[in-house]
Amino acid sequence: PELYEFCKLLPKGGDLHAHDNTMISIDRFEKVIRENTMISLDENNHGTLFTINSPNIPEGAIKVEDAIEKGMLSIKELHNLLIVSDEDEEKGYWNKLEQLFSSIGDIYNDIPTMEKVWEEGFLSCYEKGVTLLEIRDYAYEDDLMNIIRDRTIREAYYRVRKIHPDFLVRVIGCSGKDSENTIESA
């Protein structure tokens, strides 16, 4: 722990390959989603998350905060929904990632939630000494989706930049590994 704390204090300069769902700690992500996210639990206590603004909330869904308070969902179970761990190696990491994406996909369609996720991610990077962050962001085929996503990132960035004027962000569009659509440079 002492070495890790020391390393956190060292200037990093840049992180040249970050993703929105990996630059933020699980605790910070949980903080963002806990109060404004609903969860639909199945019989095995696996859950799917929906933001409170979602038109897709199934009957029986409950606020994450309430599910935790009522003992329906533990913090560990919530974290297991949100992260890939060493325990997932037997099942295959990519299988767990696919499950994770489907469990939290609705969150990525909610602009206020994603602005907060980006903001917390940017603050987290800055606190670790990163002053130049290059994020890899999924480029949609739909230009309107790209514009909305870029505006969301930009708004979060501007709020962080007001506090930390030396913090810089670059966005690099990319496609999924299984996508037939790739972005080619001219």
Lay out the secondary structure.
Layout: H1 2-9, E1 13-18, H2 26-34, E2 37-41, E3 47-51, E4 62-63, H3 64-69, H4 75-82, H5 93-104, H6 111-127, E5 130-138, H7 143-163, E6 168-174
Helix pairs in contact: 2-6, 6-7
Brief overview:
The chain has 186 residues and is an alpha/beta fold. It has helices spanning 2-9, 26-34, 64-69, 75-82, 93-104, 111-127, 143-163; strands spanning 13-18, 37-41, 47-51, 62-63, 130-138, 168-174. α7 links the parallel β5 (130-138) and β6.
Which structural traits does this protein have?
about 190 residues; about 45% helix; alpha/beta; 3-stranded antiparallel beta sheet
Side-by-side strand order of the widest sheet: 1-5-6
SS summary, helix count: 7
Q: Give helix and strand order, one letter per element, not per position.
A: HEHEEEHHHHEHE
Report the helical percentage: 40-55%
Total beta strands: 6
- The shape, in one word, is globular
The chain-level mean pLDDT equals 84
Largest sheet: 3 strands, parallel
**Helix- and strand-based class?**
alpha/beta
* Gyration radius from CA atoms, angstroms: 17 Å
Which residues sit in consecutive blocks of at least 5 with pLDDT less than 50? 182-186
In what range is the share of β-strand residues? 15-25%
- Gap from first CA to last CA: 47 Å
